[in-house]
Amino acid sequence: MTKQQEAKILIVEDDVIIAEYISEILQEEHFKNIKIAHDKELALYEMEQFKPDIILMDINLKGKNSGIELSKVKNKNATVIFITGQQDYSLMSEALKTNPDAYLTKPLKRVDLLASINLAIFKKQSQTFQFKDGYDLVSLDYDDIKYIVADGNYVNIQTVSKKYTIRKSLNTVAEKLPSVIFKRSHRSYIVNINKVQRVSYNFLIINNVEIPLSRSFSKSFK
After folding, report:
1. Do residues 119 and 11 share a domain?
2. What is the spatial distance between Cα 113 and Cα 110, in angstroms, rounded to a whole number?
3. I need a labelling partner for 59 at 20 to 30 A (CA). Which of 29, 92, 207, 216 fits?
């Protein structure tokens, strides 16, 4: 299974036939992490528990524009692709204000559906750091990462909300991160320069945490 196929996809569609049709297409393309929600309540539950990477969101749930409301409270890292009837122009205008990644019109075409999903995955991968955490594929927005610390054969990734520990070298992680955002402050530390609050002679401060700053790396913070 490729990284694209590991993406978690939530289908929010009250028409059971359409929802199953979408799911079958994705399964034929070897996507495995698929959930379906036929109403607003289940969609809210899946966004919190399943934490999808991509949400295929019907604008009209039960004849209401619940899809637009849901897109405003989705889990943070999810990308939204709206699904709408061809005549829902006023709703589409309102939906576009939520900055969706794309929108598809019914009847859905297989090629358009797959193209939208693959483009969304490509864009997400270019703006996030992805790694396996147990059986889950985690996608962290760069802005969520505060600093990364080497710990033997592992690295600890400290985000704004929690810490992840993965079995990789600091050099390997550094190669996958954009150097314009992430800088080495010490042989054992990489920091997000946008999170640095203070720079001293031999340390940095990020959220009241003191991080060592080696002389050999200090030029990056002047």
Report:
1. yes
2. 5
3. 29
The Cα 86–Cα 107 span in angstroms is 8
Give the burial class of 178: count Cβ atoms within 10 A of its Cβ; 0-12 exposed, 13-18 middle, 19 or more buried: exposed
Q: CATH number of the domain at 24, please.
A: 3.40.50.2300
What's the full length of the chain, in residues?
A: 222
Look at residues 70, 100, 126 and tell me which one is the last residue of a structural domain: 126
Number of domains present in the structure of the chain: 2
Q: Tell me the C-alpha distance between 174 and 32, whole Å.
A: 30
Query: Torsions phi, psi of 7, nearest 5?
Result: -60, 140
* pLDDT for residue 63: 64
* pTM of model > 0.90: no
CA distance 53 to 67: 16
| CATH, residue 147 | 2.40.50.1020
Other CB atoms within a 10 A radius of the CB of residue 171 amount to 12
Distance separating alpha carbons of residues 46 and 192, to the nearest angstrom: 31
Domain with 91, as residue range(s), is: 4-126
**For 46-79, what is each residue's pLDDT tens digit?**
999 999 999 999 988 876 678 888 988 998 778 9
Q: Is the pLDDT of residue 113 over 70?
A: yes
